[in-house]
Amino acid sequence: MEIPIEDSSPQPTRYALTVEYDGSQFNGWQAQIGVPTVQEALEAALSRVANHPVRVTGAGRTDTGVHALGMVVHVDIPEAECRMDARKLLLAVNSFLPVDVRIVAARRVPEDFHARFDAKGKRYFYLIWNHAAMNPLLHNRAWHVKVPLNLERMQKAAKLFVGRKDFKSFASTREYEMESTVRRLTRCDVRKEGYTWKITIEGDGFLYKMCRGIVGTLVRVGQGELTQTEIRQIFRERDRSVAGMNAPACGLTLWRVFY
């Protein structure tokens, strides 16, 4: 009778990490050959600390120039190679990261935790600087819109995006066909403080460049180029060409991932 051999090698420890980054100098989140990405920077730093090649899995992807305050990733680190608690791991990895990427929280999680598939929703915010002259401190943080915007019109129009809807008209096309372009937004609101406008968008999932398409459309409303009736029609047409432009990437920040 053949006796099964048990694998006595130690199992890796899974960590969930919350990552903040300025996306200005990165070609987005996902690792690519020959260009700097956030994923690549994280994996290089973690591999040095773990003394072992590691791969990270993020809650999603951000495009070139997009920032994050709450990207969540998971990573498996062999216990034999890295015997430290979560706080020490955070400090050690940050010492090897570029200045525009930081791990701000770390915790051990069950081995079946998945940063992407366990996520229940995400919250983004978008900043606009609405003044004739750009604020130099927001150069890579906000979209400079010189034409005056109407807050009341934008706030009313933002409510039209809340709910379970087909967002095909507001998302860019990927190389592959999406199974569904229906998503549910639980929040879409517009607020301003001085010349700074903040659009917050929260939902259970997002299509490619969907947030930027929504913001671009709301700005057209604020400029008097689109009405609420026309936005309803844009939803019905399911055609990207009839909605507003994609707002620039620099104003968008992934704020939080919900689990």
| Poorly predicted runs | none
Fold-level CATH name of the largest domain? Alpha-Beta Plaits
Radius of gyration from CA coordinates: 21 Å
Helix/strand-derived category reads alpha+beta
CATH architectural category of the largest domain: 2-Layer Sandwich
Classified by CATH, the class of the largest domain is: Alpha Beta
Order of helices and strands: EHEEHEEEHEEEHHE
Could you tell me the mean pLDDT? 93
Give the quaternary arrangement of the chains.
single chain
Query: Percent range for helical residues?
Result: 10-25%
CATH superfamily of the largest domain: Pseudouridine synthase I, catalytic domain, C-terminal subdomain
Main β sheet profile = 10 strands, mixed
Strand content: 25-35%
The figure for the number of domains is: 2
Shape: elongated
Number of H/I helices: 5
- Quote the distance from N terminus to C terminus: 47 Å
Provide a quick synopsis of the model.
It contains 5 helices and 10 strands. It is α+β, with helices and mostly antiparallel strands and 259 residues long. The termini are far apart.
